[in-house]
Design brief:
Two copies of one chain form a homodimer. Chain A is of the alpha/beta class. Among the domains of chain A are: 3-173, 3-Layer(aba) Sandwich (Carbamate kinase), CATH 3.40.1160.10; 261-335, ACT domain (Alpha-Beta Plaits, 2-Layer Sandwich). Chain A has eleven helices and 20 strands. Chain A has helices at 16-31, 46-57, 63-87, 119-126, 152-163, 197-205, 213-222, 274-284, 313-321, 354-364, 388-400, and strands spanning 3-8, 35-40, 92-95, 102-104, 113-116, 130-134, 137-139, 145-147, 168-173, 194-196, 226-230, 238-241, 253-257, 261-269, 292-296, 301-308, 332-335, 338-344, 371-375, 378-384. In chain A, a hairpin with an 8-residue loop joins strand 4 (102-104) and strand 5 (113-116). Chains A and B meet through helix 1, helix 2 and helix 3 of A and helix 1, helix 2 and helix 3 of B.
């Protein structure tokens, strides 16, 4: 018994049957004596459909009007879920983002939550109502609707859990937890009972799209215990918290990311500050650079290579071309046929053999490593895209057992 | 030049092309130097689709949640229209009902506007913005979304026009004005340049579904000049105002209403207060009674007949059966094969020959009159449904020329 925040994504409320399924989960939790706040996203493809409607009329509509448009999606979901809960005979009320007290800044389409005024939430919970809140949305100080950007409903849920000091924030999704690798690809992938915030952040960054990163960062900052759990099969999922049981695992997971482009410039004249100028230029264009490799070439030249997401590659190349020290005839190569494979685990920092064990597994499978990047809890390698699935299985087998 | 409120219904914004058409009308008005507030309804069938979604989940959802659901429809329309206006290069902002300052009472699904706080509207107009407002919706004093009921967007528009003391409130629709009869049925029907509020009210009540009645009542009360005008062909339409030019017309229009049921009880024992008891019982059931006919029957009995709308007929009959003085075996007849044909015109009160001219036209066409009802500006007759169209043409020809 306590206060539980439950978040359901768009696919969990995509149609009447699924809405009823969510209502069942929510009311079961309430029946066990808990106070329940439910955060929901827009149904299924609603957001995409609304975006398509907007584009038909104006490709360059202001974000203020886009937010006005998109916020209607969650409004539909909360009303329908409240109706479903009513049909089961439970007291319930739906609240829009602003009614639930979400104040944000004015960065439309990517607003940050400033604070949550919990008066209304507490009043409704005090009346023993199940409270259904529209995720993804808030109100700025002009009293205009804002949205938090894609995946924002996770953040809404964590923010409410933090503001109300909830006992747990359950993120319902279409997988039943966080796995050591993609279970559709790696047959021996194991579900984790617990994982730390930092590990979850690394996994999310690496393409395991279970939780929105901002929501994990916020959960870490405010120490909100998260649970990743399946809405179709709500058995215990994976708990995300500050300190996780180690379960004798050196690494928590193996992931691949194929949304990677490798850009290289070979033969830059070696003058001081080259790397600084390149990467500050890219930062100014809002391009996230991941793995960076710099080597001294021949004849007082330097080679620099780095990875960006595929859709950032053209902008990155243009940015490089605009630099005064990048000669017109200097070749800039872009390879999009690459993948990043990573192992993540807080246990790694105290086990020096991790990197070599990973490299050995790749070598045994004839997989060539193009670039390497390491952090305290992660080792990533860049390899040919065609080898990615094979590499994940090989590395997973090496660390987590065949 | 002045301040103009323009209202567009759901069919006027049903798709991208129509939204662009509305944007054209609005920006043309703005270009002429006017301040413009636009009130829009939900697109096309959006409201019906949302109701269907709700019914799939819960046939008996609370009206509070229905209003939460339905208000999303106008939210989509205002955002899309604002985007369309942006695409034409004009300054614009969309506002939800509550952002536009609509305070209502708490009768969900049929809320009444209490007041409009015009601060935000005035600020945006002061910034020379076209202001697009979601019709049909407001906020009660619990800060919950309410809706004004079907046709509520007309009321929203008139309320804004009144609150801002607008020079004109244009109601755009799919007809280009108010006609002396349904132009699809009566080939000589003429468009009226002007009509009084009272005449418009009678015509609306009688089934000419051009304007929502509450909006006309409000326009009359606050002396807001209305114009009924076509969104597809925005030439001058029909002006609705307190005193209209007479244009030498005795009557303004001839209408028919086929949503009528005639209920009769024959042979009630004549005790005092029978009529009072019958009609107060019906009023308690929220049933609007229109034409009433009471006659003394034989042997100290009374016959009472009255008309109600078709969907109210079963409830009305049950209510009669529940009365202690209505014997079980007393026959209650219900005839739904009837129609009401009416002539409306403020000029009628000073022309005693109107009724006889109408009856003559019907007699010449072999149409039998079942019931008659008159007011200062209206004469209605109840006839067989099969004669309705013939009657409208005959009466229209008699008064308004073949």
């Amino acid at each position: 018994m306590g206060l539980i925040v439950q978040k359901f994504g768009g696919s969990s409320v995509a149609n009447a049957e699924r809405v009823m399924n969510v209502a069942k989960i929510v009311t079961d939790t309430y029946k066990q004596g808990n106070d329940v706040v439910v955060v929901v996203s827009a149904q299924g493809d609603t957001t995409d459909d609304l975006i398509a409607k907007a584009k038909e009329i104006n490709e360059n509509a202001t974000k203020r009007e886009m937010d006005m448009l998109l916020a209607s999606g969650e409004q539909i979901s909360i009303a329908l879920l409240a109706m479903a809960i009513q049909s089961m005979g439970f007291p319930v009320i739906s609240l829009l983002g602003w009614q639930a007290g979400f104040s944000t800044n004015s960065v439309y389409s990517a607003a940050r939550i400033r604070k949550i005024n919990t008066d209304r939430l507490k009043m409704e919970l005090g009346n023993k109502k199940i409270v259904v809140v529209a995720g993804f949305q808030g109100l700025n100080d002009k009293e205009d609707i804002t949205t938090l950007g894609r995946g924002g409903s996770d953040t809404s849920a964590v923010a409410i859990a933090s503001a109300l000091q909830a006992d747990k924030c359950q993120i319902f999704t279409d997988v039943d937890g966080v796995y050591t690798a993609d279970p559709r690809k790696v047959k021996n992938a194991k579900k984790l009972q617990e994982i730390t915030y930092d590990e979850m952040l690394e996994l999310a960054t690496l393409g395991a799209q279970v939780l929105n990163n901002r929501s994990v960062e916020m959960a870490k900052k405010y120490n909100v215990e998260l649970e990743v759990i399946s809405s179709l099969n709500p058995i215990p999922g994976t708990i995300v918290k500050e300190v996780a049981k180690m379960e004798k695992m050196l690494v928590r997971g193996v992931t691949k990311d194929t949304d990677v482009a490798r850009i290289s410039i070979v033969g830059l004249t070696d003058v001081p500050g080259i790397a600084f100028k390149i990467f500050s230029k890219l930062a100014a264009k809002d391009i996230n650079v991941d793995i960076i490799l710099q080597s001294v070439g021949r004849n007082n030249t330097k080679d620099i290579a780095f990875t960006v997401s595929k859709d950032n590659a053209p902008v990155a190349i243009q940015a490089l071309r605009d630099l005064p020290f990048v000669d017109e005839d200097l070749p800039i190569e872009c390879d999009t046929d690459v993948a990043k494979v990573s192992v993540v685990g807080a246990g790694m920092e105290t086990h020096p053999g991790t990197a070599s064990k990973m490299f050995e597994a790749l070598y045994n499978n004839d997989i060539n490593i193009q670039m390497i990047s390491t952090s305290e809890i992660k080792i990533s390698v860049l390899i040919d895209a065609k080898d990615a699935d094979k590499a994940v299985i090989a590395v997973h087998d090496a660390f987590l057992g065949a």
